[in-house]
Amino acid sequence: MIQTSRHEEHEQISKALLACPINCPVDVQVLAGSHVYRLKSRLIGIDNPHVLLLRLGTDQSWKDANHRLEPGQPVVIRMVNESGQCQLLAFRTQLGMACKVPRRWLTVQFPERIESANMREQKRIHVQFGCYIEWGDHKEKLSLGTIIDLSTKGCRIETKVDRPIPESSNIRIRFKDEYSHLTLPGAVRNSSVDASGQIVHGVQLTELSSTERSHLSELMLANY
């Protein structure tokens, strides 16, 4: 938690938010009594120190929450500054106005308080993501797997292979289902056998492009 004098606090909040790149992923939680609508958005602008401008979504989750998207509606915002320490920023605030023409955007008020965490120093998050693993000189070998934990630096994957993939092998991890647009490069660092007899590979993510890193941040943000 950033806690200093009022003026210094506002300056630090502004600095943290302005460090977030345009089009970075934003997780919006609309607090509606005992129900929480969770929406995926992107940062499209900042009017410092008044409001943040977020992309107004069109998928079913946004349609379900549409009746709650009114000025003054309490929300929790989480976003990632992907540069430097890769900070996860989180704060509670209120919705402002929405505009649907000529561009679709939604405003949220600048926060009074903000919390941050270094995602690169945090423990891996526990997940269950189906994936395909490709390896070999020409990525001609293929196996099904399940990613069981994930961080910005690596993951562990339960695999359906007869023998471990050799250490230092370069692989590509293709996500299935909701995140099928995401493929990440990595290198096998170790392997072990779990209680059910499946081979689990520890993988270090390597040489991520800016697009891959952005997609990974979005996935991490949605499952943090």
Automatic annotation (TrEMBL):
Sorted UniProt keywords: Bacterial flagellum, c-di-GMP, Cell projection, Cilium, Flagellum, Nucleotide-binding
Domain (PilZ): residue spans on this chain: 120-220
All copies of domain Type III secretion system flagellar brake protein YcgR PilZN, residue ranges: 22-111
GO molecular function terms noted in the UniProt entry: cyclic-di-GMP binding
Pfam families xrefs: PilZ (PF07238), PilZNR (PF12945)
Protein name: Flagellar brake protein
Organism: Echinimonas agarilytica
